[in-house]
Design a protein that fits this description.
Blueprint lengths: L2 H9 L32 H6 L10 H15 L3 E2 L18 H27 L6 H26 L22 H18 L17 H14 L3 H14 L4 E2 L6 E2 L18 E5 L13 H5 L15 E2 L1 H6 L7 H6 E2 L4 E2 L6 E2 L12 E2 L7 H4 L11 E5 H13 L5 H14 L10 H11 L6 H6 L3 H9 L5 E3 L6 E3 L16 H6 L15
Parallel strand pairs: 2-3
Antiparallel strand pairs: 1-5, 4-10, 6-9, 7-8, 11-12
Helix pairs in contact: 3-4, 4-5, 5-6, 6-7, 7-8, 7-13, 8-13, 13-14, 13-15
Keywords: Cell outer membrane, Membrane, Signal
GO cellular component, one term: cell outer membrane
Subcellular location: Cell outer membrane
Length: about 525
């Protein structure tokens, strides 16, 4: 890229708060028709707000349209007849699928916009701004870039690592890099965030909890090591975050919880950024984040939202319903799944679930991330709701700690205690000597409809995953019989189904995606 073009490009970068959510270009670049970046980053307030957009806008399509298709439909936690996304349930996704394409475009938009902060802020920030302030903002951007790459590598496997989009403006053919290099890149980003983001304690002023902290990055780094099966580091880092006291279970034991809340309360808009929230996307229909999410439009049934949406596009699978240890005792069931006739006093001022509720043939509905009409959920409109989306919370961190311990990475006593804190908050009894299957089961129920289960299944290895997924009930109830019977549907995946194909338009535009991965140049 010649110097003149590079200079023109840098001088016309948009103010980052105004960037679009995504584009159809793989190497998404900011528009060249807005404010001059040279005039931005001149005050601490501008530096601090320069990362706001990274918490919402570029994530919209991935969260609203893709995350639940991969995390819940493909895993068998959910089912659908919707022809747009039914292929996620039967392992028939190809590179032509529009929803899959949105995953690539949205996540690389996150990467591109994080890169804009990382690469332009140091050059154009006012010299009087403290380096600690600058490094904190860059740490936020590097954390969010790492999180986007974490999704990309889990969905697609080897992918191109882009650290500076400007370098490829005139050379859009980019090789893919090995998964091991992607994970190394992620870890370096997260370590920078650990070292440079502010340390915090999550208190009662929830708005102050919104942004990434050093502890946030350390918790995510623990999860990365869990995926790499480095159980010693996963245990060590998760234990450090636990003992730091930065985060707490919302509800649970007094020693490690916030008794003012509960599992159900985690998902109320009023409790966004509660002390359990380690990293959540910040949706709002006004104010500094200024972007709502569309999950309620897809999850809710007609009449709940107060608008024309409420499409019930996915239902909790029969397999998931049967996976609960005790649907009356486990408090997470009521917070996740709507049974016929259940009553929710906080939803729209009081809401009774229809006796005939039947999302996608499952004879139940979804409650998690369904928050009701604008008058009772903090505002919003169709496909634009203000409630946060969790990416990582303390309940999961405790289960990371438990899994690392079970796999030999640390104290079994600490790991068992972590698991049982999650169970007691849910209203269940302790497990004295948990196994990996116990942790796997707990993760499934604790994180149901938080879009993690597909990745949990796949990371246990192809032999386990193929067997497990092939024996997951994906059928619907036949209500023409009394009692209803099940029209069983099961689908057997192959090794190739453990990763998703690259979008066809991306392989056409970037033929290097079809070539063997090449090592990433870390500049060492």
């Amino acid at each position: 890229m010649n110097n003149l073009l590079r200079t023109k490009f840098l001088l016309t970068l948009a103010v980052l708060l105004l960037l679009p959510s995504c584009t159809t270009e793989f190497l998404d670049r900011p528009p060249e028709d807005s404010y001059n970046v040279v005039d931005f980053y001149q005050t601490e307030e501008q530096v601090n707000s320069g990362t706001n957009h990274l918490y919402s806008k570029p994530w919209f399509n991935f969260i609203s349209n893709v995350s639940w298709c991969i995390g819940e439909l493909s895993s068998g936690n959910g089912r659908t007849w919707d022809p747009r996304n039914a292929d996620f349930t039967n392992f028939a996704i190809t590179g032509e699928h529009g929803t899959l394409t949105q995953a690539w475009e949205s996540l690389y938009a996150v990467v591109a916009q994080a890169n804009s902060v990382i690469n332009t802020m140091p050059e154009f920030v006012h010299p009087d701004i403290s380096q600690d302030v600058v490094n904190n903002a860059i740490g936020e951007a590097r954390f969010i870039r790492a999180t986007a790459y974490f999704y990309l590598v889990r969905i697609f496997g080897p992918i191109p690592i882009i650290a500076d989009n400007n370098l490829y403006v005139l050379e859009p053919v980019v090789p893919r890099n090995p998964e091991s290099d992607v994970y190394e890149f992620i870890k370096r980003d997260l370590q920078f965030a650990v070292d440079n983001c502010y340390e915090k304690i999550r208190g009662g002023s929830y708005d102050l909890n919104a942004k990434v902290s050093s502890g946030t990055a350390k918790a995510m780094l623990a999860k990365i090591y869990l995926y790499e099966q480095d159980y010693t580091k996963a245990f060590q880092l998760s234990q450090e975050v636990i003992t730091s006291g930065e985060f707490k279970l919302y509800g649970g034991d007094a020693e490690d919880g916030d008794p003012s809340g509960s599992y159900y309360d985690l998902f109320l808009t009023a409790n966004d950024n509660n002390p359990e929230s380690i990293f959540a996307l910040q949706w709002s229909t006004s104010g500094q984040y200024a972007e709502g999410n569309g999950l309620q439009s897809l999850f809710a049934q007609a009449g709940v939202t107060g608008f024309a949406d409420g499409w019930a596009a996915i239902g909790p699978s029969i397999d998931l319903q049967e996976a609960y240890e005790d649907t009356t005792q486990d408090l997470r069931y009521y917070a996740t799944i709507m049974d016929p006739g259940s009553y929710y006093d906080d939803l729209n001022g009081g809401y009774a679930v229809s006796p005939t509720v039947n999302h996608q043939g499952t004879n139940v509905g979804i409650k998690k991330y369904v928050v009701g009409n604008a008058a009772t959920n903090g505002g919003g409109g169709q496909q634009s709701y203000p409630n946060n989306t969790y990416i990582l919370r303390y309940g999961e961190l405790l289960l990371i700690n438990a899994e690392a311990a079970v796999m030999g990475g640390g104290s079994s006593a600490y790991g068992t205690a972590s698991l049982n804190k999650v169970r007691r908050r849910a209203g269940l009894g302790n497990i004295d000597n948990p196994t990996i299957d116990d942790v796997f089961q707990e993760r499934r129920i604790e994180l149901a409809f938080e879009f993690e289960f597909w990745y949990d299944v796949v990371r246990r290895g192809p032999a386990f995953a193929i067997n497990y997924l092939g024996n997951t009930e994906r059928g619907a109830f036949n209500n023409d019989t009394t009692p209803p019977t099940i029209n069983s549907e099961m689908f057997s995946p192959t090794m190739d189904d453990m990763l998703f194909p690259y979008p066809t338009n991306e392989t056409q535009n970037n033929p290097a995606l079809q070539q063997p991965p090449v090592p990433y140049n870390f500049g060492e």
